[in-house]
From TrEMBL:
Gene source species: Pseudonocardia xishanensis
TM region(s), chain numbering: 43-62, 68-91
Lineage: Bacteria, Bacillati, Actinomycetota, Actinomycetes, Pseudonocardiales
Top-level division of the source organism's lineage: Bacteria
InterPro entries reported in the protein's UniProt record: DUF1003
Protein name per UniProt: DUF1003 domain-containing protein
Length: 163
């Protein structure tokens, strides 16, 4: 029995040549735009006008009544619209959740960095206060010179340094 060509072998899975490739990000972005439009007042106004015209044309033209009173065709159109709108809205919500999660992580990192910077500055400020406390100020030097002048003039007894 002759060997079948590679593309016709039954013991091997088919290579996905017929698969439609699409960019998930572009599809999700388009779905998000549609979902945003579905939530606008403009869309609701247009849909209301279409329903009113649909019902008016069905009642006005007795011979061309393509969708009699229970308006089954109109209900079918709404059901089809809802079947497509719900997944698009969920996809848009998932993308928004992903963006919110990224923003929250960035905010958390920024808050941690700000806290670390604040703690560093507090330690530096404390070190400066300690260092300034050990530095002789002008008022301290003036008082010591006045005291020494009084000791030299004999107006005051010398103090013993304390250690």
């Amino acid at each position: 029995m002759p060997e079948l060509p590679e593309s016709r072998r039954l013991d091997q899975p088919l290579v996905a040549r017929r698969r439609i490739d699409f960019d998930p990000s572009a599809f999700a972005s388009a779905a998000e735009r549609v979902a945003r439009y579905l939530g606008t007042g403009r869309y609701l106004a247009i849909q209301t006008v279409i329903v009113i015209v649909w019902i008016a044309l069905n009642f006005a033209s007795w011979r061309l009544q393509w969708d009699p009173y229970p308006f089954i065709l109109l209900n079918l159109a709404f059901s089809t619209q809802a079947a497509y709108a719900a997944p698009l809205i969920l996809l848009a919500q998932n993308r928004q959740d992903d963006r919110d999660r990224v923003a929250l992580d960035e905010d958390r990192r920024r808050a941690e960095r700000t806290k670390a910077d604040t703690e560093f500055l507090a330690r530096e400020l404390a070190a400066l206060r300690i260092a300034v406390g050990e530095v002789a100020t002008r008022d301290y030097l003036r008082s010591e010179l006045d005291r020494l002048a009084a000791v030299v003039e004999g107006k005051q007894k010398p103090r013993r340094p304390t250690r």
